[in-house]
Amino acid sequence: MANFVKKTVSRDDVIKLHEKYALSMLEASIFARRGIVEGQDVMYFLENDLRFMHEPFLFNNMEDAVDRIICAKEEGEKVLIFGDKDVDGITSTAILYSYLKDIGIDVQWRLPVGEDSYGLSIQAIDDFAKDYGSLIITVDCGISNNKEIDYANSLGLDVIVTDHHNPPEELPNASIIIDPKIDNSGYTFTEISGAAVAFKLVSALRFSKFELYQQDLCLMDVHPEADGKITVNCLKTRNLVPKKSFSQSFYPGETSISNTKLPDFLRGQQIFVWNSKEVTGYLRQIFGSAVEFQVMDMQTEISKTIPFVKGKDLSSIKSISKIAKYSSKPATELEGFYNIFVTWAHKQADILFPKQAQDRLLDLELVGIAALADIMPMKNENRIFVKAGLEELNHGKKRSGLAELMGRLDLGGKVISSTDLSWKLIPALNAAGRMGMSNLALELLISEDALERDRLAQKIIELNEQRKVFVQDAEFYTTNMAKESFTNLNNKLCIVCDKRINRGVTGILAAKIMQKYNVPAMALTFTEDGSVAVGSMRSCRGFVATTFLDSFGDFFINHGGHNAAAGFSFESSKLDQFMSIAKNLSQTINLTEDSNKIEIDAELPQEYISPDLLKLVEKMEPYGEANAELVFMSKELKVQDAVAVGKSERQHLKLTFDCGKYKFPAMFWGEAERLNRDFKVGDKLDIVYNIGKNTFNGNTTPQMLLLDLNK
Q: N or C: which end of the chain has fewer CB within 10 A?
């Protein structure tokens, strides 16, 4: 088991996690071993509430985007949503299109199809301008479309870019840009999908219907200190986002309010307090009875929506705040006030606009799928997106289109996990775009005709089967080429190029080559007329794909993407030049240490091996990028039974281990030949395994999924 390692962890970290967050010692050790020790990180593993999502107006440009779209509605303008052909782009388009159509905007959509390249195109702009359109909103693209956006501007079209890809050195001259990766975006978490950015825009538009939109509010807390002073704490907010704070302590009667900065700070603000009688009493003590403060008492109003805070002071509220529980420092009364105020505002908006609340859950199904499809790290609010999406898919109302597709994938009537989405639903949904028919997947998600959705679901299943054949063919064409390229490019890069590779599977092929050789890989093919080479890059071991492509200078027609995945195109006549530049650059590639080793999360003695492990595994869901499935090790487990199984060939092993109180089933895929060669029934083995689910006749039981074993 040389490829498996178990990190040592700090006992202090384990005890702290155990005591502060009520984790079992086993759970705490797993969290510590995975580096999940800071409160904010722990929170997203333990909490599911949508309240833990970040506010959309953290984006500095969000209010401008909302106002521009509201103006488009009021003026009866035509709006075009331009997306991308992958799952992220399709779901982004579906989320924004559905909302804008629902509120009565004259909206249309467009995606790259067939030979269309990635990103906003001149042709799309021309077609929209001829149709008297005036506003283009890009989703999951646009941040690198400088030339196209300049052209749109020249025609008098406004462009709002919503994207999540790495920005170029020079940003496009768009009217408004919303991308968490641009400098000074304001957003606190950069690694969200394009669908999440579109969802944030829709969330902001929904909030604009609420009376607090664009209101400058000040939350105020005034309380006495032990030394006789009275402290005034204020927090300015706009659209539920903190903007500026004020804090000062005064001795009663010693200061004129005109000698303080408080009047300037409060000017133009609505002042909200928790207990107006108490607050105004303290203010009179400080500044005298001649000074009057116009304040609004929120205690009664908030208590109507959140009954458990009735009669409690801010000190009590801060102590029961979930958000405060995960803070790295003790919460203040004002922070407790802000947290409960934001919670109230969201609940109040849902009460006033119940359809919006239900639509948000349906949107989150798509946001969760996009996070997994675009390999976003399963941390921070991405975990909320996926957990909320799974909850709605499993126990709520499946979004139209998803319901039909899941039914044809035999995902109906069972509890869906993130793994089911990644291995079954997402590849099928992605197939339409890969086969040049991205419009089919989008139509599936937005069609109001049930029969049409069923037809589209079947077509997508067929396209997915065709896609599988194309991948197999591409692997066959490029096997020897990949091997030679790996050697020629200093064992640091791998490039394959063949006109027979279907354009839609270059990304899959690059990923497979990357996994095989554990180096960044590129797969290239050509447009139908042979004039343009198009390719995909997949990277690993800390190497940033977009930075590498930037090193080519102005060589490409276009290029862009993420750290680990990117796309590009260039004139096919430059292929030899491309290969030469790539070979020279390969000499400068620095990769982090080989990451083939699998880390053990916990070593379990047999008395810890019980069906309760399934609860632990579920607690760590969703799994994906930056949160791999839990890996356990156990030593000297007796093999009680073992048999080779398989539908056509008996190539898998089904085992049962004697774990004392429990007899635990296990599967060892593709390793049937090891029975009676490396071990036999009755032997005691050291094993490394995941815990999976086995569903039969509606009953779900845990089983081990072996990764390796040793006698």
A: C
Taking CA atoms, 283 is separated from 232, 287, 300, 385, 538, in Å, by 8, 6, 21, 43, 61
CB-based contact 536:528 (threshold 8 Å) = no
- ∠ CA 145-150-153, nearest 5°, is 125
Beta carbons within 8 Å of 491's beta carbon, 6+ residues apart: 519
Is 706:679 a contact under the CB 8 Å cutoff? Answer: no
Full 3-state SS string of 348-401? HHHHHCHHHHHHHHHHHHHHHHHHHHCCCCCCCHHHHHHHHHHHHHHHCCCCCC
- End-to-end Cα spacing for the chain: 11
SS3 700: strand
Task: Round to whole Å and give the CA distance between 234 and 166.
Answer: 37
Do the beta carbons of residue 222 and residue 207 sit within 8 Å? no
Tell me the per-residue pLDDT of 4-56, one tens digit each, with 9 for 90 and over. Answer: 888 899 999 999 999 999 999 999 999 999 999 999 999 999 999 999 999 99
| pLDDT value at residue 593 | 77
pLDDT tens digits for range 375-388: 999 999 999 999 99
- DSSP letter (8 states) at residue 309: G
Residues 6+ apart with CB under 8 A from 222: 230, 231, 232, 233, 273, 278, 279, 282, 283
Helices (H), 250-380: 262-266, 276-287, 299-305, 314-320, 322-325, 333-352, 354-373
User: What pLDDT does residue 15 have?
Assistant: 97
Q: Is residue 343 helix, strand or coil? A: helix
pLDDT above 70 coverage of the chain, percent? 99
For residue 306, the Cα-to-chain-centroid distance in whole angstroms is 29
pTM beyond 0.85, yes or no: yes
**Around 709, how many Cα atoms within 13 Å sit in the side-chain half-sphere?**
27
Angstrom distance (rounded) from CA 35 to CA 389: 26
What are 563-610's pLDDT values in tens digits?
999 999 999 999 999 999 999 999 999 998 765 678 999 999 999 999
Distance CA 55, CA 52 (A): 9
| Tokens, residue 7 | 């990190």
Beta-strand relationship, 684-696 and 699-710: antiparallel
Q: Answer for the pair 9, 33: CB distance below 8 angstroms, yes or no.
A: yes
Q: Kindly report the average pLDDT of the chain as a whole number.
A: 94
The pair of structure tokens assigned to 578 is: 């491309």
Question: Is the pLDDT confidence value at 662 over 90?
Answer: yes
d(CA 428, CA 406): 10
pLDDT digits over 139-155, tens only?
A: 999 999 999 999 999 99
3-state SS track over 563-603: CCEEEEEEEHHHHHHHHHHHHHHHCCCCCCCCCCCEECCEE
CB environment 441-462: b (16+ within 10 A), e (fewer): bbbbbbbeeeeebbbbbebbee
- Of 386, 299, 327, residue with least CA distance to 91: 386
What is the spatial distance between Cα 346 and Cα 302, in angstroms, rounded to a whole number?
11
Please enumerate in sequence order all residues whose Cβ is within 8 A of that of 110, keeping only pairs 6 or more positions apart, or say none.
Answer: 80, 81, 82, 83, 124, 127, 128
| Cβ atoms of residues 474 and 523 within 8 Å | yes
